């Protein structure tokens, strides 16, 4: 039997089989590469070019240089949306990951009905963001109507409403990743810690958490990027409202996040589409930089098993 397996492996790796594959690899690679170029590379570089142009449609783009970027940095609503998005991302990062890890840890302790609870907690992730926005908008307005207010009339309620909505949707998804990490913790390490006299809290901090750092890295990355890219929930839940009138005469939406600000800039005024495209490029650079820094910071804490 072993000899047959060796012969099969040798046959698969033989030059007679590998040579035609190596000769024709471009034929197999070409469709995927063409789809990647058409669906990603071309739109990406086209959008980057349009960020330096003034246009209403892509066919009448006129080069204006850095003018769009200057207007983007001078836009008070864009700067406000950046700091507001950062605050939402920071709160969501802590809330979602702490609760997701706590739920995952509890469900890996051998409690009854663990599989049922996993399915229940994961279900909100299957609901679309727009549907979630409408559902939670009705829930919040039903509660706040007793206080003669609404989620679109109060900045604080809008802020916490977004965080609650994001947590309700994403905690179950992050929980699954943490469960996979917790189940990969070697049992002999846990037993050795118990023999050495470590209690449950010490085992959690000294053994479990360092071992599941790869899962923490993934969940932190997903939470950060999802928070900065949040759009449909923000648009449906409160539309960025309420409005705030500043002393200098500018009007901003106090709960408008970056993605919604870019959308409004691009579509509400046809003459500002170049500025909206410049904001989109800045948004891409910002999210990519934050994600890379976060990955580098958390990966240095991972334990090699």
What does this structure look like?
- This protein has 305 residues and is mainly α.
- It is 72% helix and 3% strand.
- It is built from 14 helices and four strands.
- The protein has helices at residues 2-12, 15-23, 25-50, 67-74, 76-107, 114-122, 129-144, 155-183, 187-195, 200-211, 213-228, 232-237, 258-267, 273-299, and strands at residues 53-54, 62-63, 243-245, 251-253.
- The strands form two sheets. The protein has a two-stranded antiparallel sheet with strand order 1-2. The chain has a two-stranded antiparallel ribbon with strand order 3-4.
- Strand 1 and strand 2 (62-63) form a beta hairpin.
- Helix 13 (258-267) packs antiparallel against helix 14.
- The longest helix has 32 residues, at 76-107.
- It is globular, with a radius of gyration of 25 Å.
- The mean pLDDT is 85.
